[in-house]
Fold:
Amino acid sequence: MIAPQDLLTHAEELLTPGRRGAPLQVNLRRAISASYYALFHQLLADATDSLVGRTKRAEPPYGIVYRAFEHGRMRDRATRAINLSARSATRLGIAAFSDTLRNGAAIFVALQAERHKADYDPHYRPSLETARAQIEAARNAIGNFAAADKAEYQLLLILLLFELRD
Structure:
C-alpha cells in the first residue's frame, strides 16, 4: 500500500538544501509531485476502503477499484463537486458539499495543476516556498477530508469515481 504520509515525508526530505545551499530544481519538482500523489493516494485508499472494505486490501477486487480512478476524470469530477448545481445537490440529498470538502477538492485540483507543471513543463522553475506550500496544501486537504462528515465524504469519493448522470 502506498502511504500518503510517507510521500509527504519524502517530499519534505527532498527540500533539504544541496551542496550549494539550495535544493536542486529536480528535488523541488519531485516534492511538488509527491505532494499531489500523497493526496491522490489518500483519496484512493479512502474510497476503496469505503467501497470494498479496508479488511479486503489484499484481495483482487480492492486492486481493481483502487486502479479504476483516473487523474483527469477525478479533476473534472472534483471541479463539478466544488460547483455542484442545486439540481444535482438535491438529487444527492444535500444542499451542497460542505466548505471543508469543497476546500479539499479545490486543493486536489490545484495540486494536480501544479504537479503537471512540475512533471511536464521544461520551463517551470518552482521556488522552495512553492514546494513547501504544496506539501502544506496536501496536508491540509488530507486533514479536511479526515475531519469531514463521513457520509458526505463518502458521497464525494463515489463522485470522484463514478459519473453523476441525469
